[in-house]
Design a protein that fits this description.
5% strand; six-stranded mixed sheet; mainly alpha; 40 helices; globular; 61% helix; 6 strands
Length: 843
């Protein structure tokens, strides 16, 4: 018997090095990979300790199916099936097949035990039990004659079936095969005529030319040359009225090197036609569901266009969305399908180009807009992301309910306005509940929890994110975005063995992905292979933006290899020639310097920033002075500059001019925060009141959250400074807003302000909760060192020694080589870490 193209085995074979290097085995790669109907509970849960006993469970499932007719839980959707394998006992086999001997029933059900330790522990045990069950008197009850008689046909059927399977497998093994099959080439056979109407005969071969005109190969499938195909077909048939049997049709497609075979029927008359067709994979013989189109004969071209679109969508796994493709030109559909395939393999830039091309061909293509929004979000290109969301939003009536839920989960329920993180996560939860069988739905939920869950105040956000990513991989083991995120979470947990397995699986699936160097870096760090890490850094000029983000942000997650990230951002690259890229690089270099306890170096980067764009450094100098060990004198000068820019040098206005952008409100807010920190309350109260009461819808979309947040920060600060009776309530209002607010500078500094205000009010636990709310692996790591230092102090004060120890570990690692002015602070943190570690060890 020959096992052909076995999906999971193929994926694991491609990642064979994972098995060898991780000292793992087969199914036990530490993640949920497999077909839901045949997965052991530990596989479905993504248990990294899965071993050969999962195969014992799978054998039990197959035996159950052969003897009962269907596997357990077969009528349920994939996600429910996975949950059932984890938690539910299958219906007893004896209830489904009462004629079986009890010993065989017991063996199969024992193989389906939830706990691996309760199953047979080896294939040899299963074999021995089978031999006993098959031997009358061999320690098992003798069947009654009637039962024995009723079992013979079943046994004969199973033997016949086994022989048939081997015969078919053998036939496939010895079929002459083309050296290579082009997955994009489609062999279109002459269509069968289901009608005797002679006026339709022209379509028998004519469909080849019509489909060849649609399947041109431009960014997708192409038809085999009709002349070449007809020549081969005529050699294969006795006369031109004959239709080839399926196996011979597959042979013919194979001879032409086509990876797909299209067969179809035509029915109707000269006035009205029905065309039915299906695509068959030549290598595996898998046929998609047939698609049919009907209409007047004079609309033949449009019917063929629709038929081709539906067939391609079905083959690409987009069958659920066929309704959304109505009226979409075929070239636009091909671009969309190519973009979808590229996105699944983490080729985000290429996917964005394909989605944008699809929109260029059809400006109402809502699904292409959704795709562009999602793919460009990985690249940090807001313009493309906004374009995609706008197209999808303006034509959302063309989306099915689940895709409309996806739109809300990515664009936010308030688009084109901004939505808070809690609202976004809630939208992602609704999408995951509505589409539990979609890998991207599980990923979207995991992604929201991964990046924003902690900032939204969800304490177990990362544990829930891991569950979602594992579910996404269980549904689609090649879904690279989920694997990438799991690698980061496992690095955060310190599980380097699983990082190695995941990273190698990712690279084995597609070594040309957008973040391949980021994944190679992660793999090198997990192994402690600094030579490979340096080799990645040596290619800094050719690194993708995603790889750079991975390399510079991972140290903040792990607390290790921070110097390498510093080296990467401090080394000039070709991108420095571009002003906007240089600006962002300087901000990143500044952030790393400040986190590392090098404020003088950070200030030097701000000097360069000022040369690139006058006064662009003011905001950063004030926030450095408030939250990041920055120069107070420089911050004071910058605050005066910001006050002048916001027209607050003279009397404070009662209203704001319309159309102000976020920079205006940022200047206004930060200058007054600085003066408040110096005890000057003259401007803060009025600015807070005006920001709250003078809203204009024509202001920039991001202004309202900035204004509301700043007003609440100033108001809470004033209340605490003035020891007003409502001070705690004012801080609570700020705290509630920050848990729902969108990303931005107000949120990043707001949680620090809130934490410090709660601490001044004596509410240590609320202060600790606030300081632990911060986004994760999402752009700038603003004030991270300050967050960690404050968290360590508050955690120890609240009695959370373990939390304090971990925060101090990361703080000390981050500031491993500070400037002299901060050396005493780092020394004190190092001593506190040693003291707490010793205390925990003694406990």
């Amino acid at each position: 018997a020959v096992v052909t193209d076995f999906g999971v085995a193929k994926a694991l074979s491609a990642a064979n090095v994972v098995v060898r290097d991780a000292d793992s085995s087969g199914t036990g790669i530490g993640m949920a990979v497999g077909t839901p109907a045949y997965m052991a509970p530990e596989q479905a849960a993504g248990d990294p300790d899965t071993d050969h006993r999962a195969d014992i469970y799978a054998w039990g499932l197959l035996a159950y199916e052969l003897l009962a007719g269907t596997p357990p839980f077969s009528q349920r959707p994939s996600h429910e099936m996975l949950a059932a394998h984890i938690a539910e006992i299958p219906e007893a086999l004896s209830d489904r097949a009462p004629e079986l001997p009890q010993s065989l029933n017991d063996l199969v059900m024992q193989c389906l035990e939830k706990r691996p330790a309760s199953r047979p522990q080896s294939a040899a045990e299963v074999r021995d039990a089978l031999e006993q069950a098959a031997t009358p008197g061999g320690g098992t009850p003798i069947m009654r004659a009637a039962v024995r008689w009723s079992r013979r046909p079943r046994t004969a059927t199973l033997i016949s079936l086994a022989v048939l399977v081997m015969a078919i497998a053998g036939a496939f093994a010895f079929r002459p095969r083309a050296r290579t099959l082009d997955a994009n080439q489609v062999a279109v056979l002459p269509f069968r005529l289901a009608s005797a109407d002679p006026s339709l005969r022209y379509l028998r071969e004519g469909m080849l030319d019509l489909l060849a005109a649609k399947l041109t190969g431009e960014g997708g499938p192409r038809s085999s040359d009709p002349r070449t195909l007809l020549s081969a077909w005529r050699r294969a048939v006795r006369n031109e009225t004959e239709d080839l049997p399926r196996d011979r049709a597959l042979d013919l497609a194979e001879q032409l090197g086509a990876g797909q075979l299209l067969i179809g029927d035509i029915a109707g008359n000269a006035q009205r036609l029905t065309i039915t067709a299906t695509l068959v994979g030549v290598r595996d013989g898998r046929a998609d569901d047939p698609r049919s189109v009907s209409g007047p004969a004079d609309s033949l071209s449009a019917m063929v266009d629709r038929l081709a679109s539906e067939l391609l969508a079905l083959r690409a796994g987009e069958g659920e969305r066929i309704g959304a493709f109505a009226g979409v030109p075929l070239p636009a559909l091909r671009a969309y399908l190519d973009g979808t395939a590229l996105y699944r393999r983490a080729h985000f830039a290429a996917a964005s180009r394909e989605f944008e091309r699809a929109i260029g061909l059809d400006s109402t293509f809502a699904l292409a807009g959704l795709g562009l929004s999602t793919a460009s979000g990985w690249l940090g290109t807001p313009k493309d992301q906004f374009l995609g969301r706008t197209v999808a939003w303006n034509h959302r009536e063309r989306l099915n309910p689940r895709d409309r839920a996806l739109l809300l989960a990515t664009a936010g329920p308030n688009f084109p306005g901004s939505s808070g993180w809690r609202a976004l996560i809630a939208a992602k939860e609704r999408y995951a509940a509505l589409a539990p069988d979609r890998a991207d739905a599980q990923f979207e939920l995991g992604d929201g929890l991964f990046h924003f869950g902690a900032a939204a105040g969800i304490p177990d956000a990362h544990a829930r994110a891991m569950e979602s990513f594992n579910r996404a991989i269980a549904l689609d083991s090649s879904f690279s975005p989920a694997i990438e995120h799991l690698v980061v979470l496992e690095l955060e947990r310190g599980d380097t063995a699983r990082v190695i397995r995941l990273a190698q699986l990712y690279l084995a699936a597609d070594s040309a992905s957008e973040n391949r160097d980021g994944m190679r870096w992660s793999l090198a760090i997990a192994r402690g292979d600094m030579a490979s890490a340096r080799a990645v850094l040596a290619r800094r000029d050719s690194l993708s933006s995603m790889a750079k983000i991975t390399i510079t942000e991972l140290p903040y997650v792990t607390g290790r290899d921070i110097e390498a990230a510093q080296t990467l951002v401090d080394t000039p690259t070709r991108s420095d020639a571009d002003l906007s890229a240089r600006f962002l690089d300087l901000v990143l270099r500044h952030d790393i310097a400040m986190n590392r306890g090098r404020p003088a170096r950070g200030a030097a980067h701000l000097d360069s920033l000022r040369l690139a764009q006058p006064n662009s450094d003011d905001f950063y100098r004030v926030t450095d002075g408030l939250f990041w060990d920055g120069d107070s004198a420089a911050a004071d000068i910058a605050a005066q500059s910001m006050r002048r820019k916001a027209a607050l040098g003279g009397p404070i206005p009662g209203t704001f001019k319309r159309g102000k952008d976020p920079a205006y409100f940022a200047d206004l807010c930060m200058s007054e925060l600085w003066y408040l920190s110096r005890g000057d309350t003259t401007g803060a109260r009025r600015v807070s009141r005006v920001m709250l009461t003078n809203y204009d819808s024509r202001d920039s979309l991001s202004s309202p959250p900035m204004r509301m947040g700043c007003a609440l920060i100033l108001d809470a600060q004033l209340a605490v400074m003035q020891q007003r009776p409502d001070a705690h309530a004012r801080v609570d209002s700020l705290d509630a807003f920050l848990r729902t607010a969108p990303d931005g500078p107000i949120l990043r500094m707001g949680n620090l302000v809130t934490s410090r205000l709660y601490e001044r009010l004596g509410d240590t636990r609320a202060a600790l909760f606030a300081v632990r709310r911060r986004d994760f692996f999402y752009g700038r790591a603003s004030f991270l060192s300050t967050y960690l230092r404050d968290e360590a102090r508050l955690a120890e004060k609240a009695g959370d020694a373990a939390g304090a120890t971990e925060a101090l570990r990361r703080y000390v690692a981050l500031r491993g080589d500070p400037e002299p002015a901060l050396q005493a602070d780092v020394t004190a943190a190092t001593e506190a870490h040693a003291r707490l570690s010793k205390s925990l060890a003694g406990r």
